[in-house]
TrEMBL record:
SUPFAM superfamilies: Periplasmic binding protein-like II (SSF53850), Winged helix' DNA-binding domain (SSF46785). GO terms for molecular function: DNA binding; DNA-binding transcription factor activity. Residues 30-87 form the HTH lysR-type domain. The keyword Plastid does not apply. InterPro entries: LysR-type_TF, LysR_HTH_N, LysR_subst-bd, WH-like_DNA-bd_sf, WH_DNA-bd_sf. Belongs to the LysR transcriptional regulatory family. It comes from Burkholderia glumae. The lineage of its organism: Bacteria, Pseudomonadati, Pseudomonadota, Betaproteobacteria, Burkholderiales. Keywords: DNA-binding, Transcription, Transcription regulation. This is LysR family transcriptional regulator.
Length: 334
């Protein structure tokens, strides 16, 4: 809701509107609250009208005028018949005081928009390689089309530690939400699921993939921490099956690269590897895995930052534009 000029003046200029601990109280420091009063007096040339504009009493304005005269060493406004007229010193100060008050107003009022055409800023986004590979190019194109001087720095995501968000080293993080801490903001972008991916002429091509056939081939495990087993192994165990993990890699693109040139099976998130699976075969896993919710995460210091809000909206738009599609085994993906 917009702040009216009268309410803003009153909240700043009224002696009862500002806690004493927040006012300047050094012996030789000027009372900056008097600038608001002086601006009103020089605009109205009337104690009564200035008091009305500020929501104060005429007696309070008269006392403030006396303090202004003592502070500046000038009468500022003197009587001419029934009116008050500014002194030469007051005329000199009028434009300067107006500029100072306008500047204070700009600082204290909410900033609801950013000049994207003139914005020069580097945003650091922490995301895994699969996300950058799938969504990065479209996000960059959307951002630079509106804000040509904005740069995106994609940072690696070695773990789920959110300290970089708290310190400001990272502006935005994208991924599955772990333990974030209560103060961080989270917004879902899309849902994803794990699928199996093999090379085009894999022995599984054209088959209905059963749990037994699935477990009979070697697999590639993806783990930033080098873990061999995971949820898929637990699900196979309930069926009295066990797979062989032939390799462990740290990223989904690396897993797909290995699967492309071997008989190994890569288990990867569908949407985040869409562009990396060209010419390969995908199939629904024969065990029921948990659906993933991919979110963007940020620190609340950026809640009302117009440029950061705009970046978050760009990310939402890019993710919404790319629809999920799953190809049956036996048909290569484009």
């Amino acid at each position: 809701m917009a702040i009216t000029l009268t309410a803003w003046y009153a909240s700043i200029a009224s002696p009862s509107g500002i806690p004493e601990r927040h006012q300047l109280n050094k012996t030789n420091a000027p009372d900056l609250n008097l600038l608001i009063v002086l601006d009103a007096l020089l605009s109205e040339n009337s104690v009564a009208r200035a008091a009305k504009a500020l929501g104060l009493s005429s007696s309070a304005l008269s006392r403030s005028l006396a303090r202004l005269r003592a502070t500046t060493g000038d009468q500022l406004l003197v009587r001419a018949g029934r009116d008050l007229v500014p002194t030469p010193r007051a005329l000199e100060l009028r434009a300067q005081v107006r500029a100072l008050v306008d500047g204070a107003h700009a600082v204290l009022c909410p900033c609801n928009s950013a000049d994207l055409g003139e914005l020069e800023r580097t945003f650091s986004i922490r995301a895994n390689e699969g996300f950058v590979d799938t969504f990065g190019a479209e996000l960059i194109a959307l951002v630079t089309a509106t804000a040509p001087n904005v740069r995106l720095r994609f940072a690696p995501k070695p773990d789920k530690n959110v300290e970089a968000l708290r310190t400001g080293a990272v502006d935005l993080e994208v991924g599955v939400v772990g333990h974030t801490g209560p103060e961080l903001r989270v917004q879902a972008l899309f849902r994803d699921r794990f699928i199996g991916v093999v090379r085009a002429d894999h022995p599984l091509a054209g088959e209905h993939v059963t749990p037994h056939r699935y477990a009979s081939f070697g697999h590639i495990s993806v783990s930033r921490r080098g873990q061999v087993s995971g949820p898929i192994d637990n699900l196979l165990e309930t069926l009295r099956l066990q797979r062989t993990v032939a390799a462990v890699v740290s990223s989904f693109p690396a897993a797909l690269s290995l699967a492309r040139d071997s008989n190994l099976i890569a288990n990867v998130p569908e949407r985040q590897t869409r562009k990396s699976r060209g010419g390969m075969l995908s199939f629904t896993l024969p065990v029921l895995t948990t659906t993933l919710t991919i979110s963007q995460i940020w620190h609340p210091r950026f809640d009302n930052d117009p440029a950061h809000r705009w970046l978050r909206s760009c990310l939402r738009l890019v993710c919404a534009n790319q629809e999920s599609s799953l190809y049956d085994v036996g048909a290569a993906e484009p």
